[in-house]
Amino acid sequence: MTQFRQGCSLKLFPIFSVTSGMAASSTGHERRSRYAIVRVFVAGGSGTIGVPLVTALINAGHQVTALTRSSDKHKMLRMLGADPVVGDALDAATLRNVVEAAFPTHVIHQLTALPKDGVPRGSDLEATNRLRIVGTRNLLDAAIAAGVSRVIAGSFALMHGVDTHAPASLRAAAAAVESMESQVLDASNAGTIAGVVLRYGLLYGPGNPATVKLIEMIRKRRLPVIHGDRSLLPWIHITDAVSATLAALDGGPAGSVYNVVDNWPVSISNVVRVVAMYAGAKHPFVVPAWLPRLVTPFAASMMSIRLPVSNRKIRAELGWGPAFPTWRDGFAPIAQGLAR
Q1: Mean pLDDT of 174-183
Q2: Between 3.40.50.720, 3.90.180.10, 3.90.770.10, 3.40.980.10, what CATH number should domain 26-339 receive?
Q3: Whole-angstrom Cα distance, residue 138 to residue 325?
């Protein structure tokens, strides 16, 4: 497979949650068994990436404290085997208290507030932007005060393809991601905590509401193919995102940044075409490029990004590789299962 450079009704595109759900691959479990058992504080432990991550950490034998904003998620997290704590990452004093009480060795930052079935509007990102700016600052301060040795921040690769012509809401989201990454890396460079940033591709997986919605829209011919689509979007199955996160617990030097993506970036139009085939749906409609920009400018701008990033660095330094090497490998069983 070629390696690339490092670095919608007429809702025409659902924007995929950077979250969703399965446990880590068997390869990941074999690798993690070589690591020491650690105490992990997962900020965002009840989200759709947080839940499979918490599950995988516990299955690997780690002691896990999971932060959630919702008291309704308390019982579910405890049933997974985690020690749940309720708190708001935007409340610095409360966050510091719960982190210090957990006495973790490692912190994993998965704070988001995204709609579960996608992000069709720029306004849907505002709460997550605050978490990535203010929440990151509060979490780092709390982790450093608690003597945490390592923090891993889950970021979003696609934001690094946003340019100056993008809608203001998308540029604000990109700036929030940059702030989160810079805060973690600056603290790491200052020697106050060892920081690692993981830039996830577009996450998808079975049971993920955004993935289910995408496939259902394709089956109903509500997602078109864009004529002349030149986008290149990085993807990653949730299983592989989780295994990469666990590999980073003690892997890689402080200050590292890794692209957690599969082997094949692809246009959204190609995904729509192929998933329709897997789902046994009729061929999607083909529309001119100006139409999605007119009807859904935010989603169209995001899905037109060309970002051919590679996973070469994380493969070489952490020995990680995706269990689902391409988006075809991951989408096929999901789409076929939903079509039955």
Answers
A1: 98
A2: 3.40.50.720
A3: 36
